[in-house]
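# step 3/5: fold
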Amino acid sequence: MKKLLDYIYGSEQFEVRSNFDLSKSIQHLNSLIKNSRGMNNPFSTITRGHIDGIVSENHVYLYWFRAMIGNPFKPVLIGKFILNKEDNSVSLCGKFTMRRFGKILFSIWIMMDALMTTLILVTNILADRTDISYLFI
């Protein structure tokens, strides 16, 4: 079931190694988020997008935000920092996926599509129609 859901929703795994220790990596990612928001000019977020999200040691959730434009299918980054004991390095591991609302909307859309296709096929079989060209007019 997990393979089917991964195939339908398409999550892409990733790993990014950091040259810094854990606290410095979190600090750098947080500063990137704050700098992209345009803290010097609050009106700059209306005209251009920025990175937003939550960054902590155990949970990273990042997405691209643009004011007044909503897109439930846009990718989000979900991951966490992992400390490698062997070489004492830090990696950000996770996946790119869709938001939960987008997945629900996509599932409803696919189910309705399958239901309509099934109903059309069953009606044609029961009516004993061989010519279905009227469906494509």
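# step 4/5: annotate
Residues 100-126 form the longest helix (27 residues).
# step 5/5: archive (pending)
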